Amino acid sequence: MEQIHMEQLDEQLERVDRQLLELLSERARIAQQIGKLVEKSDPVREKEKMERLIAMNTSPYDQATARQLWGQIIQASSSPRQAGRHKSLLVSRKSRNEDTVVKLGEIAVGGGKPVMVAGPCSVESYKQVREVAAALKQAGVTVMRGGAFKPRTSPYEFQGLGIEGLKILKEVADEFGLKTISEIVSPAHIETACQYIDVIQIGARNMQNFELLKAAGDVRVPILLKRGISATIDEFMHAAEYIVSRGNRQVMLIERGIRTYEKATRNTLDISAVPILKQESHLPVLVDVSHSTGRKDILVPCAKAALAAGADGIMVEVHPNPAAALSDAAQQLDIEQFNRFYAGVLQSGLLG
Ligand code: PEP
Ligand code: MN
């Protein structure tokens, strides 16, 4: 008798499971349709809807278990929507197959011929920047970097010359016909910076400063976005999406090393990020060999590796007198070392 009853219950359970499966499939299909119609879900409304449902719970499950159960169901049926959204990131190759080419006057970054970006870690004086610029001009390098707003680990370290530093960059760049890149750390300075520099750099420490990313998205000036110190490639791409989604499509990505346990280099140069980013995104990808290694002695092989992996450009720090530099003294090349470095990279034929 008991045996027969058990079999009946088992059958009933199987029937309910089949019905549940059908209902869940129907729910997922409807959620997918909604996903196609709406840009993004409204989490507050979703939560309210779920709470209304849980309030009706009269099952043997307690409220917490019911909430957990529904949480799982809702998450499972909303993931096709999320996957759909991810696929359509504007920075993704899935939404645009053609390479983005960022134009700096005559210079095309991402157009097939890699670019060399060089210059001091910090703008320290007119004389210092002019010396570097003259050397770059002579070497045939057309894009100069130099930090005026310096995000330093310690508040007691040199913080940069600020707007005054941007003015120096402009004056020197105009004299030598160079394009300039400089980091901006506050949304309030973005507009002003556009008067003085050609590319706004967003540094590793600010890769997820979302208000800064939004401000960078609101101007129409090329942005060089550095990978965060511990950022995954996915986070890096989403940070770029913040800028591109606000209409500024001129974004370049730059791998600058990530923090690992390795102490032989300042950071670990993630070479694999280059082909992955080139595959996943249409944006130009550069590699900063100075901040990734923190050394001067392995820059040629690292630059070659980056270019061989498909990088659209290299960034390196150069200072007339690195020993006296106000920041990153250990990693900056002097002018003679830079000339040797550049010749070494040119010799590889990888700069095109
Ligand atoms: C820089 O390029 O000046 C700099 C501070 O680098 P990062 O943001 O990569 O540390
Ligand atoms: Mn530096």
Q: If you had to describe this structure to a student in words, what would you say it looks like?
A:
It holds the Pfam family DAHP_synth_1. Keywords: Coiled coil, Transferase. It is an enzyme of class 2 (transferase). The protein has two domains: 1-84, Chorismate Mutase Domain, subunit A; 93-347, TIM Barrel (Alpha-Beta Barrel), CATH 3.20.20.70. The mean pLDDT is 94. The radius of gyration is 27 Å and the shape is elongated. The chain starts with a helix and ends in a 5-residue tail after the last helix. It contains twelve helices and ten strands. The protein is of the alpha/beta class and 352 residues long. The protein binds phosphoenolpyruvate (PEP) and manganese (II) ion (MN). Manganese (II) ion is lined by residues 121, 291, 317, 327-328.
Q: Output the CATH class name of the largest domain.
A: Alpha Beta
Strand order of the largest sheet: 3-4-5-6-7-8-9-10
Anisotropy-based shape? elongated
CATH architecture of the largest domain: Alpha-Beta Barrel
Query: What is the beta-strand fraction?
Result: 5-15%
* Structural class by helix and strand composition: alpha/beta
Ligands bound, unique: phosphoenolpyruvate, manganese (II) ion
Query: How would you characterize the largest beta sheet?
Result: 8 strands, parallel, barrel
CATH topology assignment of the largest domain? TIM Barrel
Average the pLDDT over all residues and give the rounded result. 94
